[in-house]
Amino acid sequence: MTLVATRLADTVAGLFGGELPVGLRTWDGGFAGPADAPVVVLRSPLALRHLLWAPGELGLARAYVTGHLDVEGDLADGFRRVWAAGTGGPGLPELARGARALLGLGVAGPRPPIPASEARLRGRLHTRGRDRDAIAHHYDLSNDFYSLILDPSMAYSCAKWAPGDDLASAQRRKLDLVCAKLGLGPGTRHLDVGCGWGSMVLHAAGYGAESVGVTIAAEQQAFVRARGGEVRLQDYRDVSDGPYDAISSIEMGEHVGEENYPVYASALFGLVRPGGRVVVQQMSRGADAPGGGPFIERYIAPDMHMRPVGRTVAMFEDAGFEVLHVEGMREDYAKTVRAWYDTFESRYDEAVALVGEEVARVWRLYLVGGGLAFESGRMSVHQITLGRPS
């Protein structure tokens, strides 16, 4: 009898120019592909059934997070090899051939249960209620879980690295950079939109600024208050106590959505005084990169949207801002995510104890894939400094 790996090899290799970029081992003991590469392990027929019901990235993610598919060896190296050999994704003919091959292996059957960690949001995009649900899916996971991965300041955003820095030093450097661009000092009235766990609010207060943060994540609000920071559980669209001298918004704009981004830009413009400054740190994608994807949208950041940085800058100009400075930090984010990943792997058992094996596997996939997206230039991040004309 021909083993499953052998029967699958030709079909899979056809998606990568005729050769498997990684090894393939199946539940019946079969093996195909190079011996000196990471090995994709199909532990049960359910791995392939996930792919039948959700071909492509989503099916692979479901198989991985549920443990029916695994990778032996360096997961990041496996990603690099697959991306380097990829042809831009299978078309309909390739998907049809793949489906026929899977059906021929006898793995057809009812749809496997959708993993519990997958987001199930309802309602119209970017209403206040749906935005709260989307943020809660990711950020209300557990403060203790995030404290395993992040530095003591709990900054969950790109750091700014210099030679010799550890993660905590690089995060302080980033926060100092934002404070300098905003011109914070004693008595400066400062608002942090999407304040996370309060790293910017508390750091700004160290400059003497009167700093307040807003978040729609209840777990974050409780955490910041426990640290002595001023924070409100409030949507950015509901902030009405301006004008502020300075506003920061660090990696929150990705969650606003394409249609609502002009609303967000106008809200920031209306909340800062004439002559005041705004710093927005935000992820972007390359002009030809898709950004996001089924895995990110279902498991990590539902409803997140990224665009090329030029389009974001144009929206701020349309809102009335003068664009003073744009700083790219892509390489810094690759280092930041790598630091998070190294810490996560060193404390993996603790993470599993807090959130369970399935969610821990989601995060392993997220950190590896995200790091490589910044490393390869598919994604980037920028600090955009804006001024409201006097």
UniProtKB/TrEMBL annotation:
<dbReference type="InterPro" id="IPR029063">
    <property type="entry name" value="SAM-dependent_MTases_sf"/>
</dbReference>
<dbReference type="InterPro" id="IPR003333">
    <property type="entry name" value="CMAS"/>
</dbReference>
<dbReference type="Pfam" id="PF02353">
    <property type="entry name" value="CMAS"/>
</dbReference>
<dbReference type="GO" id="GO:0008610">
    <property type="term" value="P:lipid biosynthetic process"/>
</dbReference>
<keyword id="KW-0949">S-adenosyl-L-methionine</keyword>
<protein>
    <submittedName>
        <fullName>Methyltransferase domain-containing protein</fullName>
    </submittedName>
</protein>
<dbReference type="GO" id="GO:0008168">
    <property type="term" value="F:methyltransferase activity"/>
</dbReference>
<dbReference type="GO" id="GO:0032259">
    <property type="term" value="P:methylation"/>
</dbReference>
<keyword id="KW-0808">Transferase</keyword>
<comment type="similarity">
    <text>Belongs to the CFA/CMAS family.</text>
</comment>
<keyword id="KW-0443">Lipid metabolism</keyword>
<dbReference type="InterPro" id="IPR050723">
    <property type="entry name" value="CFA/CMAS"/>
</dbReference>
<keyword id="KW-0489">Methyltransferase</keyword>
